[in-house]
Write a structure and sequence with these properties.
- This protein starts with a strand and ends in a 14-residue tail after the last strand.
- Helix content is 20%, strand content 32%.
- The chain is globular, with a radius of gyration of 16 Å.
- The chain has 192 residues and is α+β, with helices and mostly antiparallel strands.
- It has one domain: tt1808, chain A.
- It has a six-stranded mixed beta sheet, with helices on one face. It has a three-stranded antiparallel beta sheet with strand order 1-3-2, covered by helices on one side.
- It is built from four helices and 14 strands.
Length: 192
Amino acid sequence: MIAAQDNDRHFTPEEFFAWEEQQLEKHELIDGRVYAMSGGTQNHSAITGNFLSIIKPHLRGRGCKTYNSDCRVNILNTADYIYPDLSVTCDSRDQENAFYITYPCLIVEVLSDSTEAYDRGKKFEKYRRNPNLIDYVLVSSDEVAIDIYHKNAAGEWVIVSYRGGDRVELPSIDLSLPIEQFYEEIVFPSQP
């Protein structure tokens, strides 16, 4: 959810972490530059909460950690740090640093009009560099619709689209359930 470049100063990751601790808003660090994060809607927040409330108990006792949008993801082999809406890691190396994770197997982004192109394009381009990432989940906040970019056994990314009545498959965490569970109690604004 990058809104706008915050300044022209270049930061090292260490400078960024120290600087961001003093800020009221969250920021992402991309190519040494800081970008302010935009806020989300009620549906955005509620859908993210639904994912968290489904995935966290599903993974209990499996050695995996589920994180909300307060956890940064380091783009592997870069100094870029991004805040996805939800991430899951089952890699013990991610317990070595308190500021971020690097090896997620699942990332969820809830889409908004202002971020959809970025989430589908440049952001996914960064995320897919990581060999541990298996499922990149893009969730509509305007309708019951989920697109999953899934890395198959051959290492190829395929897109699977789910709509109302479908059963969503998340192989990265061995989860399968009706799409409607992710949209529980979500009210969509009426279209004119």
